[in-house]
Design a protein that fits this description.
Helix content of chain A: under 10%
Largest sheet of chain B: 7 strands, mixed
Number of strands of chain A: 12
Number of helices of chain A: 0
Number of helices of chain B: 0
Strand content of chain A: over 45%
Helix content of chain B: under 10%
Radius of gyration of chain A: 14 Å
Oligomer: heterodimer
Shape of chain A: globular
Structural class of chain B: mainly beta
Number of strands of chain B: 11
Radius of gyration of chain B: 13 Å
Structural class of chain A: mainly beta
Distance between the termini of chain B: 37 Å
């Protein structure tokens, strides 16, 4: 079974500053996907960024980037130029890369509540 | 295009009752997954359906069941409700199960309160 650990229940950052959210995972799989999802107070879970484990290059999406360390099983999210709208719960999630037709289930961490301060 | 839709938004039920939650996937998506998110925790996988067949089931009791219809919409049913079933129930859709179709897009959720 896979486990995802987010050791920072809460974090805060000043507007325009940079913040890094940590995530570690445990798996015996070699092929998998990793995700960061954002859940604002509206409850809608929004995909922020994704990483395929077989790709060594770290994924980036505008102000969001990841530091993927496969050997260390670490997957941190860096948010640059933080904005008030980034205030939300952030979840790290894992998905096994299985044969076609198999279930695609996400395993989530417990989340990090990020508050961007004006 | 409309995203994933779920109904109802909120629901209050009494212990022992039955509840049905509904989900409509993004147009063209054939897979629907259900997750339970208890307050203060990350979502937990309940079911995944693809082409009307159950393709995966999480560690939930048999009181939880689901089905997918020919139009790919889905229902989640919970029987004999317990206080511990109070949670946000999230539906996610994906276009398929293979290759690039693995990404899941979530709906706004249904908040279930059991009293």
């Amino acid at each position: 079974a896979q486990t995802v650990t987010q050791s920072q229940p809460e974090m805060s950052v000043q507007e325009a500053e940079t913040v890094t959210l940590s995530c570690t995972y445990d798996t015996s799989e070699n092929n998998y996907y990793l995700f960061w999802y954002k859940q604002p107070p509206s409850r809608q879970m929004i995909l922020v960024i994704r990483q395929e484990a077989y790709k060594q290059q770290n994924a980036t999406e505008n102000r969001f980037s990841v530091n993927f360390q496969k050997a260390a099983k670490s997957f941190s999210l860096k948010i640059s130029d933080s904005q008030l709208g980034d205030t939300a719960m952030y979840f790290c999630a894992f998905m096994k890369r299985l044969a076609s037709g198999s279930a695609r289930q996400l395993t989530f961490g417990s989340g990090t509540q990020l508050t961007v301060l004006p | 295009d409309a995203g994933v839709t779920q109904s109802p938004t909120h629901l209050i039920k009494t212990r022992g009752q039955h509840v049905t939650l509904r989900c409509s996937p993004i147009s063209g998506h054939k897979s629907v997954s259900w997750y339970q998110q208890v307050l203060g925790q990350g979502p937990q996988f309940i079911f995944q359906y693809y082409e009307k067949e159950e393709r995966g089931r999480g560690n939930f009791p048999d009181r939880f069941s689901a089905r997918q219809f020919p139009n790919y919409s889905s229902e989640l049913n919970v029987n004999a409700l317990l206080l511990g079933d109070s949670a946000l129930y999230l539906c996610a859709s994906s276009s398929g199960l293979a290759g690039i179709h693995y990404e899941q897009y979530f709906g706004p959720g249904t908040r279930l309160t059991v009293t």
